[in-house]
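#struct-queue
[09:14] JT: dropping the first one here, sequence first, then the structure tokens:
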Amino acid sequence: MPDELSRNPFKNITFTSPTIPPETGPMKSRPSIALLIESSNSYARGLLRGIMAYIHEHHSWSIYLPEHGRGNVPVNWLNSWHGDGIIARIENTKIAEAVVNCGVPAVDVSAARLAPSLPWVETDDRAIASLAAQHLIERGFQHYAFCGDHRFNWSRWREDHFQNVIRDAGYLCHAYPQTTGRKQAPPWEAEQQRLADWIQQLPKPVGIMACYDIKAQQLLDVCRTINVSVPEEVAIIGVDNDEILCNLSEPPLSSVIPNTRLTGYEAAALLDRMIAGEPVSSDAHLIKPLGIATRQSTDIQAIDDKLISDAVRFIRQQACEGINVQDVLKSVPLSRRVLESRFQKIIGRSPHEEIMRIRLDRVKQLLEETELPLIEIANRTGFRHSEYLNVAFKKQTGTTPGQFRRERKQTR
């Protein structure tokens, strides 16, 4: 069932226009808190959810949440604001100066670390990079790469940690060459060509960690443009698990899931202690990630056998079109016995089992994300009859499609 936060996300929160002075004197009933956090991306929205969760569990705060883009200069009212505390994603020196000069308790939730005197809550980039590296190593790759953006501390830290894990495992990591000294992203046309040249030069198959989901999506776009197959030749994992971005990518993007809710919650808890007069360390408070959302962009075992790799690619592209093993045999010059033997040895499943696995994964996605009737889902996933889909689904999952859909809705 939906929790209280999802039913009423603003319970116990009073939103006040920053043009109206905060409550003062004996009539003041709640702390006035400014949130300088954008709401334009999933990471920042996760921080805000965590802050709201803390407020629901502890105190009523009067919240100032101005329209604020990432890295925007401070809004004018901040210079004369007389509130009780600030939680800010401090992305440039002007914001850092404005927040510090306010003279009120403040917590920073940015990796830029431009206000070192403030308590700092951030995701644990070492743990994030380690999770991504192990995810790719488990898939049997012999070649690895990292694609980052050196404008950001968190990208550099993730690159360093990822390279260390890969190196400790006995492999070489290829890093995307950076343009030194740039403060803004280059034009997409130029960046697209540089990414294409880099991907073409990498040894394959290769597992790539991108510094975050947007960079990973760019890599997927480039791979599609230059006809490099994902995940068979290049497997890509991002960071942030922006579900809309990841599921709109082609193919859907695997991503490390940061615990943004806990990050925001911890920031609110630290600010609450500071407002109460308790000493709080300015050391980093690092929050470990929740895990990995595995999607098609890394759903592969590294395959050196080109014919089996071709067979796997054909199955992944055509499984929901109603193909069978005979169709797979038409795509590769192998006998059925040799295909079955080599496929089982490398993939750990038979070609038929792989076809069914991909179909049923797609069935699960449609059950969870749409209201399509079962007969339409069967039609879209290569099952001739909904009854056959029902039997195959229950055999794999132990439950019916209807039960699966109801259970998933209850946990949203």
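[09:21] JT: and here's the second one, same format:
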Amino acid sequence: MSKRVQRFAMEFIALIASIVIFWIPLYFVIITAMKSPREASLMDLALPQVNLLWENIKEVFVYRDYMLVRAFYNSTVLTLASIALLVIVSAMAAFVMQRRTDRFTPWLSLLVLMGLIIPPAIVPTIWVLDGLQLFKTLPGLILVEVALGFPFCAMLYRGFVASIPKEIDEAAIMDGYSGFKLFFKIIMPLLQPVTATVIVVQAVTIFNDFTNPLYFLPGVKNVTVQLTLYNFTSQFVSQYNLLFSNILLITIPPLILFIFFNKRIVAGMTAGAVKG
């Protein structure tokens, strides 16, 4: 078998796998969101007799006094604030870990690596947030998201910082730059590729987060987009047409973000890995 045939076979298998894994579930979500309650309850792949997508979307938006609008606002604030803190804190920590050469540096790296391995503890985190009077508050959940995303972002930034020659630091110090001025004026602009990767990956992760808002931000006024899925499911009755309309609405923003910035994600991660 020639290399061209092998390559064609691998591409064909990858195409079929992507259709099965991604496009068929997306197709199922879209057509179910178009159906009436009776048709949606069948949970099949048949096309709807009448397209009710727009009516279902309007009903989802007005449900429970426009809860979905409030959820989009909360999720947007949560995502933007968490990303801003993550970028600054992770980049600064990575710069210090990469540039320092004393005996504490390996232990610092080990602690960051442990953050990727050890799972988060729900009850102690709630206890700490309650002691700080941040439980059931948006700032408290922002701190949780930053803490959970910090190890991955710091390691990604550290690999990219390693590609920046130390001579740049020394030249900047000779010109009078030091401390925060050195980092924000010289180093941070050089981290734009990996920063784009961190922003896109973490934005999708935080926006789609379900468990952390459920545990640390309970309450109707604090609802995020993922928690609105509870509106249309119960023990005895489930409105699948509205449920999948809701899923479609909350899937569109991260999907668009991922599609348009997919190349930036790959470029930032591979640059950090190869140069690190």
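[09:30] RK: nice, looked through the second one.
[09:31] RK: The first helix runs from residue 3 to 33.
[09:31] JT: good to know. The radius of gyration is 23 Å.
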